[in-house]
Amino acid sequence: xxxxxxxxxxxxxxxxxxxxxxxxxxSAVCVRAFMKAHSLSTEAKDLSFASAQVSSxxxxxxxxxxxxxxxxxxFPDAAKSGDDFLVFYDGEGTSCPEKDAVFTLxxxxxxxxxxxxxQIYMERAGxxxxxxxxxxxxxxxxxxxxxxxxx
Length: 151
Description:
- The chain is of the alpha+beta class and 151 residues long.
- It has two helices and five strands.
- It has two domains: 30 residues; 99 residues, Pantoate--beta-alanine Ligase, Chain: A,domain 2, CATH 3.30.1300.
- Strands 1-2-3-4-5 form a five-stranded antiparallel sheet, with helices on one face.
C-alpha cells in the first residue's frame, strides 16, 4: 500500500510541476506583451510631442521674420547656434537647459534665390531624429506696399 501511495504522490508532484511550468510560461508571455505595449505607448507619445513641436517651429519660421527675437517670442528658451535655433526639452516635454535635455528641437534655415529652406527636426539625445520636416517657402511680405510716385 505504501508503494501505491508514493507512486500517486510522485504522479501528483509531476503534474504540479508541469502546471507551474505552463503558468510561468504564460506569465512570461503576458509580461512581455505588457512591456511591448508600454514601449509602443512611449514611442507614440514621443512622436506626437516631436511632431507638434516641429510643426509649431515651422509655423513660426514661415509666418515671422525668422529673427532670433521672433523665435524667442514663441519659444522663450530657444538658443542660437550660428544660423540654427535650438530648443531643449526634458523627458516631460518641458523646456529646460541644455545639460538637462532629453529632446532637442533643431531649426536650420538658409536662403537661396529668394526661397527660404528650413530643415526642422526633433531628436532624442544621442539618437536618430524622431520627426523631421523640410520646408521651402517664399518669405511673407510685411504687408507694406511700396510708396507710389506722386508726380
